[in-house]
Write a structure and sequence with these properties.
With 303 residues, the chain is an alpha/beta fold. 43% of the residues lie in helices and 12% in strands. The protein has a single domain, classed as TIM Barrel.
Length: 303
Amino acid sequence: MRALWLCLVVVAAPAYAETKKPEPPAKKPDELAPLTDDPVLAKADRVDGDELKGMVAFTFDDGPNPETTPDVIDALEKYDVPATFFIVTRRLLGKRGEKSRELLARQIAAGFLVEDHSMTHPRLKGVTAKTLASEIDASIKVLAKEAGHPIGMFRPPYGAFDGVGRAWLRKRGLTEVLWSVDTLDWKARDAERLRKKVMKMILAQDGGVVLMHDVKPITAKIVAQVLDDLEAENCTRLAANKEPIWPVSIHYFLRDKKQPRAVPADVQKRTDAYKAALPGRCAARPKPATTAPAPGPAAPASK
């Protein structure tokens, strides 16, 4: 019996040794990679808005909104100011998104940047991987398709993010973009006060990345006035031989390991054109109203 048992072991052993564990399933190619492969905007350091002084970049969140975004675009075009629109992509979906898709096409045709701001605008701090996938990955797929080009930047709603979310962006090569001039236009009620506040903040910081919302009627109402105030300030500075605060694309704020990223030639060309045109725009501006001097004392009557 002992010999028979040993024989069975010897016979059975080779078959057991040849048994292989099942191969893990092959990994699917990263379908998101080509949708975030923007060689100009992607994979940069996080933008905080304090990367340089003397330049201001305007950014607008949460649109497009057919009721308000057209006025914002009109104002930017009138004053020849670049801007970045961070899109909530559910606005682009379905029949209801038709006009928003038209606005997106207008923004791109006008040379503005359109970047991602999530699918439905939730707070993304402390959320699960499933939520990050549905709010970032799915959103990028929508926006890249509608824009017709890769998307390189992402702004977390409310600026609420954590290490997990940032790792998620890095893996996809997306540049996180925050701001330094928080206008709080979403809760403003007084248009004139908001207008003055925005300009005051820009002057105090000598530029920066401005956060506004093109979905807010109050913002659509005052943005042209803000841009006019900026132009007036720059004209005053030119007259005094001082350096203006130049409105620029957010490209100028991009850094790689804290070193400035090269600004594309076409972006630099637009900035140079704005600088060259500014003296003429200043000359064409209405002259500030002057207050007539108070009348002096009446001359004594002649005798």
